[in-house]
Every structure is written in C-alpha cells, then in structure tokens.
Amino acid sequence: MTARPMPPRERTWWSRTAAAAAVAAGHHPRLLQLTSGLMLGLSMLALLLVLAPDLTRAPAADQPVNPPLPTPLPIDRRHPSFAEEFDQLRLQGQGGPWRTRFDYAGIAAYTLASNGEKQLYVDRDFRGTASSPLGLNPFNIAKGMLTITAAPVTDAQAGKMWGYRYASGLLTTRHSFAQRYGYFEIRARLTDRASLWPAFWLLPADGSWPPEIDVFEQLGRDPATITMSTVSNATTSGQKRPVHTHAVATLPTAASAFHTYGLLWTPEQIAFYLDDREISRMPTPADMHTPMYLLVNLAVGGPWAHDPAPDHPVNGTITVDYIRVYPLISEDNPINSCKHRQSEQS
Length: 346
Fold this sequence. Notes:
The chain is mostly beta strands. It is built from 3 helices and 19 strands. The protein is 8% helix and 36% strand. It is globular.
C-alpha cells in the first residue's frame, strides 16, 4: 500500500524485486514487510538512481511503452458491484458481507504471526481460550463511518489471548464478495500513531498466494508515506517466486483528513489512484486474472511498523467513510457476490 502526495506527486515509479526473503516467507500474504526496511529501501534507491536524472525522458527504443489508460475511468459510478457505506456493521453471521478473521486454522485466524504482528484481530464475540467473550470490540459505527481501534488489553485478557497484548480489527469479504477487474476504492482517514499499520488490500478468492494487491499501506511512524504494491508469482530462471512492486507517494494530511485510495485493475493494466489522480501503473501480471476479495485492517508492530515499547503502550484508530467496487464498463466480468452468504463467526 502506498501514500499519496497532496497534491499527488507527478513522479511515477515502480520497483520489481524477486526477494529471497519472500521465497522463504512461504504461504502467508504480505510478507514483503518481514524484510521491509532492507528490501523496500534498496528497491526504492535503485529506482531513484535510475529515474532521478530525468523523470520526463522518453523510454528507450527497446523498452515497452504502456498504452494509455482510458479517461475518464471505464466505470459507471451509479452502479457499484459492492458498496459499503457503514451505516451499520453487518457481519456474515448476520447476513452481511464482512467477517472479522482470516480463513486459516488456529491462531492464524486472528493474526499474521509471520509478519511479527503484536495484535489479535477480534470482535465482540471473541473468546480466545475463555469460555465467554472477553469484552473486546475494536469496531464503532458513528455518523455513517467505521472506526477501527487498536489498543492494549488487560493482563487478564492477554492471558486468554495466547499472550498477545493488543486487540485490533480486521474486516474481509472472504466467502461473500470477490471480483475480477474493476475499480476498487476506499475513503479513509489514517493514523499517526507509531507502531500502527493500516491497509486495504486484495487476495485471491481461491485461497492461493500470491498474487496480492495492496491498494494502500501506511505506517503510523511515517504517516505521510503511502505505499501501493503488488505481489505476483513470476517465473524467474525457471523457478516461480514472489515478485514485488511498490509505488510510493507523499500525503502530508493522510492522518488528519479523509482521502480516497483507488485501484484500477484491467486485463492489461494495474493503476493506483489518490483522490482520483493516477499515481502509478504497471502491466497486469500473468497471475492476476482471477477474482479477489477485500480486506481492511489495522495491524500493530512487526519489523516494518516497529513494535510498541513495553513501557509506552500505543493505541490509535483509522476511520473509513466507505468502500466501493465498480465493474468495468463493457467487460463480461465474473463478479462473485455470493449474496452475502453466511459463515460461522468465531
């Protein structure tokens, strides 16, 4: 996920990295952050060295030229395929689109331990190892907006949470909504609290990984920087391994004002948008042609976000105004709405 400038930076640059650490990361999504500082830093530095001398130069004769994207966007905003305005929080167990955990077994349903995260994703029914709910609820709806709060828990609650000392929120449309291609948009106010890590991202509905698309990621310790990324399973030297791309923009008011973060995904191109302005684009990778579902979350800690100091616990929020998805115009698009099919909640 990337940050957008205000106004958005006109530079557009992509890094493509086949990271050895990502190969070792195995099957969990968003593991580029495990070596985030080194990998992202090196890839950005390499791109700056290449692009900084002349950001407007024409491509070399042997370089492919991306075809221009349609203007305006090839969508009809009157007819979204998914629209969550957050007048209420409707979970799948209540006939709504959202679930509050990952589709993994055991503790992996509540956190990405491989990212080094320090929180469990909970809801008001979360029990951990207790026989009754622990009284935690990271979600609040007010004035048509969703607020997700990350906060420390009590010693007694941590004892029922496998030792995890933070609770936060995750929403996904796994098993209820997935779409191939289109425009995916969130309007949100992010955070400036150190160690917090909000994201809006997409994963394949068939449960595979890669691919992955991060519409945005932001770190509270660097709140003006937004990262927009992809992870694909490219073939290199005869071996398939994750390849990461990153687009980075600067948005000084990301934590103090609402902005829209968008993804245009077509069969040919992937483009990231901030406040309806294109930030960066790339050819659609070969493995990004299947329906993907939505995730929005607020993580705590890990090597990329940095862990909270034990004697200075952190808490903070993000607020989401809406999440909307639109199909492409004139696209025979397989949209898997699943009619908000119910699934068991923890």
